[in-house]
Model the fold of this input.
Amino acid sequence: MKRSPCIVSLFLAAFLSACARPEVPAPTVTLPAASASASVAPVRKRDPVAFFSIESGVFAPVACFDGATFLAPGADECRTLVPEGAAIAIFGSGVGKLLGKTNGKCMRGESTFDARAGEGPKLDTSDWAIWPASATSLVNLDGRDLKPTPAEQKALEDALAKADDGNKPPRKLEVNSGVAADMDGDGKLDRVFAGHEQAHLFGLVAVFRASDPATPVVLSSMQFDYPKIAGTSDLDGNGRREAIVSAAFVEGVDGNVLTSAISVRLVELAGAEGKRVGEWGCRRF
Done:
């Protein structure tokens, strides 16, 4: 029997529709329960991001990525990157709101620093915050108790001696924190350690790359520095983690008064050396 062209066309359309590949929805960022907000859209990989240290109940900007590059630490463009009233995730607490520019008072002194006012839960006990509130997955504050092997300990102490203007060994570095993170973007976990040496008052942050596990690359080395790794981040979304370093940094002696500061630094691996991409500090006394 001869089929009508209309019937053949309808049959072909139904067949193609049944065999069409189903659409796969795009993945979304899943937020920890403490930071999730139904009204906040997930952050895209190259969206602007601002990371804050919470000091004296206000938000001190540590690092700001404007979507193309990290802004200079302490620059006005960093302090004003986040719109007033924007939702900001407070780690371990929940979602708050960032307000206008304000001054915060440094601990044990009259010095002040430029910061952003804000509101949110537990500002007196929380240490870190990030904007947008959907960007919490870019920061990892867990697992900071990694210990160096005996070979790594020896290599760190040799690196400390070299960094300290060639001061001869033996040196004794007290490693206080360590994390496993992909610092060079090769998809493998590297090992990052921080510590200080009391005898020479010298601090060190260094990474053992998975591709060269015997040789540490120094990310940060300074005298009178007491660094500790607080976590890692990937604020610019390039696949290389930044080390979040908190420290007490001794600036010097003014007469008979010892002056020091608390500070936060973000350092990353750039080739065969460390690069500082964010920082904040405040004189304590």
User: Anything to note?
Assistant: The two ends are 99 Å apart (CA to CA). Residues 5-19 form the longest helix (15 residues). DSSP finds three helices and 15 strands in the chain.
